[in-house]
C-alpha cells in the first residue's frame, strides 16, 4: 500500500547524534523544518505542537514526561525550539516539570549568527492554580532568554522583571488564546512551538490555533496515565500525515492539522 511508505521527512532532517547518542556538532546545516509554507496567517503566528507519547497515547508517567523520549527526541525538541520564535507552555507543565524553554549554547550561537534573538521567547499561560516561583523557568530568565506570562492571576505580577519577565494580567475568567497569539505576532513572533501540556494543547486545538503536530511515539505502553488530549474536542480534529521517520524503535510523526479544524 502506498500509504505505508515513509513520506517526506528523511534522514537529513533528524538531528545528528554521535555514537553515544549525544547531539553531535549542531544539526544538519541548511536543513529546516519550517519553510515558506509555515508562515504567520489569520493574524497570528504559525503554531506547531510538539509532544512525546507512549504507544497507548500517554504523555506522562508518575506525573512527568521525563524519560519518555530518547536522546533523539530531545534533540528534535531542541531543533524545533531553535527554529521557533517562541516556546509556549501551560502552567500545569511548569508545575510538573523542571525545565526552561531555552536552546543550548551551540544553537543559541547559531541563532545569533543568523541575526535572530539568542533564545526563543518563553511564553506561559497561567490561571489561578499557582506557580512555583523558584522554578528554573523563572529563575533562569534573562535579557537574552526572556519570558512572557499571560495570566488571570494578579498575584503573578510579582514575577515581573523589566526586560526579562513581562507579565500580562487579564481581567477575565480565562486568557484569550487568540488574543495571546495576536499579541505575539505584534511582538514579531512568527512561529510558535506549543509544548503543552494536554490541557493547553486541547484548548488550542479547540480554538483552531494549532497548524501542525510533531509527535514522537516511544515504544512503550504506560497504562493509566494522562493522554495527549484533555477535555472535550467536539467534532474531533482531522490530521494529515506529513512525514514519518523511525529510529531505534521510536517513531517521529509530523501531521498537518486540516484547515478549518477546531
Ligand atoms: N509528553 C509530553 O510531551 C508532555 C509535554 C508537556 C507536558 N506533559 C505533561 O503534561 C502534564 C501537565 O499537563 P496539564 O494539562 O495539566 O497542564 P498544561 O496544559 O501545561 O497547563 C494547563 C494549565 O494552563 C493554564 N491555562 C491553559 N489555558 C488557559 C487559559 N486559556 N487561561 C488561563 N489559564 C490557562 C491553566 O492553569 P491554572 O491551573 O493555573 O489555572 C491550566 O490548568 C504533566 O504531567 C507534564 O509532565 C507532557
Task: Explain what the structure shows.
The chain has 262 residues and is an alpha/beta fold. The protein has a single domain (45-257), classed as Dihydrofolate Reductase, subunit A. The chain is built from six helices and nine strands. The protein has helices at residues 71-83, 91-96, 105-113, 136-139, 177-186, 198-206; strands at residues 46-54, 86-90, 121-126, 147-151, 165-169, 191-194, 212-218, 239-247, 250-257. The protein has a nine-stranded mixed β-sheet. The longest helix has 13 residues, at 71-83. It is globular and about 45 Å long. Residues 1-19 and 21-30 have low confidence and may be disordered. NADP nicotinamide-adenine-dinucleotide phosphate (NAP) binds next to β1, β2, α2, β3 and α6.
